[in-house]
Amino acid sequence: MPEAxxxxxxxxxxxxxxxxxxxxxxxxSVYARDASHLQWGTPLAVALPASEExxxxxxxxxxxxxxxxxxxxxxxxxxGGAVPPPGALAVSTARLAGLxxxxxxxxxxxxxxxxxxxxxxxxxxPHGLHFAPDPSSQAASTLGGNIAENAGGPHCLSxxxxxxxxxxxxxxxxxxxxxxxxxPVAVARGLDLRGLLCGSEGTLGIVTxxxxxxxxxxxxxxxxxxxxxxxxxxxxxxxxLLQAGVLPVAVEIIDQAMIATVEQAFAFGLxxxxxxxxxxxxxxPAATADAGARATTDVLLGAGARAVRAAADAAERLALWxxxxxxxxxxxxxSPNYVSMDVVVPLGQxxxxxxxxxxxxxxxxxxxxxxxxxxxxxxxPAVHYDERRAGDRERAHAAADAIIKAALRRGGSVTGEHGxxxxxxxxxxxxVDAVSASLLRGIKDVFDPAGRLNPGKALPAAGPAVRYxxxxxxxxxxxxxVDSLAVTAPAGTPVADLQEAVLAHGLWLPLGLxxxxxxxxxxxxxxxxxxxxxxxxxxxxxxxxxxxxxxLEAWAEAGDGRAFHAGAAVAKNVAGYDLLRLLCGSxxxxxxxxxxxxxxxxxxxGCWGWSWTAPGDGDAGGAPAVAPAGHxxxxxxxxxxxxxxxxxxxxxxxxxxxxxxxxxxxxxLALGGxxxxxxxxxxxxAVVEARRANVGEAAALLSELEAPGWCLGSADWTxxxxxxxxxxxxxxxxxxxxxxxxxxxxxxxxxxxxVAAEGWRADIAWRNGHGAPLPPxxxxxxxxxxxxxxxxxxxxxxxxxxxxxxxxxxx
Amino acid sequence: MRDPRPDTRLDGRRDELDALLRRCVQCGLCLPVCxxxxxxxxxxxxxxxxxxxxxxxLAQPADGPAIDPTVSRALATCIGCQACTAACPxxxxxxxxxxxxxxxxxxxxxxxxxxxxxxxxxxxPAVLAAIGTLAAVGRGAxxxxxxxxxxxxxxxxxxxxxxxxxxxxxxPRAPRSDRELARCLDRLCGHGEAPTCALPAAAAPRERxxxxxxxxxxGLLPESSRRLRDLARWAGAEVVQPAGTACCGAxxxxxxxxxxxxxxxxxxxxxxxxxxxxxxVTALVTEAAGCGVAIRGYGERLPAPQxxxxxxxxxxxxxxxxxxxxxxxxLHDPCHARHGQGIVAEPRALLRAVPGLVLLEPGxxxxxxxxxxxxxLRHPGLSAELGERKARHxxxxxxxxxxxANPGCLGQIADGLASLPHPTPxxxxxxxxxxxxxxxxxxxxxx
Lengths: 811, 447
Description:
The complex is a heterodimer of chains A (about 800) and B (about 450).
Chain A: H1 2-16, E1 21-22, H2 25-30, E2 45-47, H3 52-65, E3 69-72, E4 89-92, E5 108-111, H4 117-124, E6 129-130, H5 143-149, H6 156-159, E7 166-172, E8 178-180, H7 193-197, E9 206-213, E10 215-216, E11 220-228, H8 231-243, E12 250-255, H9 256-266, E13 276-284, H10 286-302, E14 307-310, H11 314-325, H12 327-330, E15 337-340, H13 350-364, E16 368-373, E17 378-385, H14 392-409, H15 428-431, H16 434-447, E18 479-481, E19 486-490, H17 495-503, E20 507-508, H18 528-533, H19 547-550, E21 551-558, E22 563-567, H20 579-583, E23 591-599, E24 601-602, E25 606-612, E26 653-659, E27 665-673, E28 691-692, H21 695-704, E29 737-742, E30 745-750, H22 760-767, H23 783-793, H24 803-806
Parallel strand pairs in A: 2-4, 3-4, 25-28
Antiparallel strand pairs in A: 1-2, 5-9, 6-10, 7-8, 7-9, 11-13, 11-14, 12-13, 12-16, 15-17, 16-17, 18-19, 19-23, 20-24, 21-22, 21-23, 25-26, 26-27, 29-30
Chain B: H1 6-10, H2 14-21, H3 35-40, H4 47-59, H5 69-76, H6 83-87, H7 94-104, H8 116-119, H9 125-146, H10 150-155, H11 159-169, H12 178-189, E1 207-212, H13 215-220, H14 222-234, E2 237-240, H15 250-254, H16 258-277, E3 281-286, H17 289-296, E4 306-308, H18 309-315, E5 328-332, H19 335-338, H20 345-352, E6 358-360, H21 375-378, H22 380-396, E7 401-404, H23 407-418, E8 427-429, H24 430-446
């Protein structure tokens, strides 16, 4: 085959130019490895395409020649995702590093896959925005890699992982054909290819460009460093913190072995005589951050911290994070090799797992240094070894496997953010049941039937000898895990029952679907299964999440009755493709949900509801004049514009603001038009000190909350409203739109008609929700893939669906 | 001899290198600060890639195959800027990459493109001065012959011509006379002409310092070098420049001439020996960042702690105030200052102390400009590419003026800016800008 190989290389070279294709021994050696210390094969060559079109052409050439393709960003992955099998073409995205202009109106930017993670935030900083996912490798790791692995980072606790921050993906399939997930919108019902591609480790498709969701910078950040003489006290403090109603943006723990390592490397001044230090960060308007910092300090001191101090200034804060984010690199000072683990457990199991890790350390006589994303229940034990010492590597891996099994026994997952890669293929069957495994392989076959995209990664090991996990017993009654901030319930549980049960513990499901009294457009009697399957939304969509962001675990039955289980009751989980995002919003066309686990949040102590009426209602404050897009208010001050040109009368504008127990406003939960209260009485804790206010008063209040743009959800992950036209143009206000401006940011709410019964709530929750057919796929969608997914889950078509999906009609 | 075998060059240091190399955990945090990776996207031209290749070489048996040209090129393109060392959480030392470069370099004379005799004598001020003069003439002639894009046209030529183009293009320039400098900055600032154009020394010096200007400063930018000493005197220094000093030895060391480097070091130590015995010498102040690193490397035999001139100025607390310079200024840190000596805050503190001055930070501030002393002459194409990339970032700040503290960076950045297709800001030595600010301040206090 050497001639065929030479011909192919010549073709690549013709396409990419002499510097765009590397075939020398130097490149073949370097590109065979990444940050994982795993090795497999020598690549055929390394391609460095400089345009998205060339990237697709390279993939098409590989398809024609039957060559496998392994994508590579900066090679910072820790699970071996970029390690090529023998003879694969390694395709680097290093020359695909274009960043588009920031759309400050909706907070979005289009990036090519080779853009460095940290470069996005630098690019967006002048607009007061940043890209929230912040893996510790962010200085070097690329977006392509972040998306492929569904990367997390310390700040995922409040902001969510990479998949929460994608608006749309442009991608090519194994044949090099270009596709798109559609307009860059935040929430789209239907089969979520965006969610499926994210975290698929380059095995389903190749991302050629992505519209990213940017997050407003908080006005104030308070970073605390707590010293814990006992590690277990530190881990036990995490759920207590959240139960106390405090939601930090990040909670990290570093154990004593890791403290010693980073101190040797960076001499930050961490205490060496404690078993753990915790970094907790609070963000938001200054009053909120300060109140959060005070509450956090109290809780941590009460939970056994010896001392809690705040970073004095931005420089100290930065140094502290540098020290944390570079911790793993520093491990090289202690041992030449390490197994970098990534297990994640329900928050309530954190202390138990830490105990077991100590036992493993003793039993296998290995050195383990651990840094945790504690707020997520995500641990990164680094098991040290020296590959040149006989038996050392095997012993380290045996210890690592013991830790994985311990995490799985506690309802966890083998990987929270690093990915399965090559490294955890063997461990995946310990977590995944046989039906799920076959569904995962079925999905792979739909996207890449010839198996040319990154073979040997991400999927569970297969074969007659492989024993898959049993399905955990399906819950038959509602179960609240207070320590883990999760609720598990049969799919038929009414949302109101669920909400009531968790509120009793000071928690709530921040879905915005509310109480028993049905408001127009809100089905008070809906079930949680329906809410998930149909992606029902409530008025709190703006400030909160959709079910896609909250669903952690599901028990379901495929169309042919095969029962399977997906996910785990953990905050982040990248073991296998993201079946949950696919099921969520699929309207029951792929599988029938039987039970679900959802993430809970501390319930607000109460809410303030403001409503006021606009001109025509005799409101002296009145709405300011119509402003052009992007125009900030007088003197940059906060102002609101209720724009309803041609609408008479405008029924009203409402805003619901959550407040903390101390009475500090924490975030805006909802806003919208209509005379019906957005939050029906009894929902969401203790609404409502409702009052009418004029625009001036509301503006003053929002001004008091500081932080331009903050109100639309920086303190939690945010679902922005869909914006047409790739998010670049603001449509002029009209009868069906509603414009909200706060500081420099403008968001329009589609379908926000000024008549209550047809208000925007109705648009989202009612029209989309009940009995509505699955919306047709956006232009640029691969219909054959969507139908293939349908066949994989529901081979006999028993679950029905629109004609374009079942193959019985036109798209 | 184009195919050196690794083992002959290891001098029995295999184990030592191997132990250092094993610190690398392959995390990749060195990639985004490496200029050659940023410019090419080719990981063989990244620090991690080079270390992996060094590991391959060390793993080979003594009688292993010859080094592949792609491997030696990857190793040889390391500029030695030390950005990776500063970024490395595992503490892999830059010396390891220097060893790799040495391993990869063909033995014998330097590449034919630059006459070895020339490369070997770049550490002599007289040679540099001659080059400076020739470059000024050559640049004029090339502009007249080939137009403003002459360098681009030469770059596509054979190696020798490209290298000469590079040499001619990247020789640093700065206003010769104080009056010329003041006029240039007056014009930029929109100032009227200052009544006098001199910087008075402090009436009573507070510190006595040994001063080491360095060959490039002496040979190519003698007036800027003198202005920097004026600044030091203004800030309270008594400047002592003993006779008999020589090149710091950095070029010789990088050019694989350890003997010559040693010889130069001994000459310098001897020259300082007398002066150092005098009372009250608090510092050995160095101008060029590269010299600073080399001299710091002399170790404990130094008569006083080595301090970079800019760092010394920054710490000279009770100096007179600067006058206003209402300009947007983009700063480029020389690698051997930023990474080699950790000098980051000092120039910024000085510039922030200048009233009206707005300091701008360019993108990829960690990355080398691609000058690299003799490196740029060995890799003219890559060097020009890096210079242009650096210039694009500096120009993108929208600055009125670019400043940097190293002669090599100065020439490289001026050359890069000149190659951009749009109007670009002028470049000056950081010391010249500070001299001007101090001079305006002194003028203000007199009036």
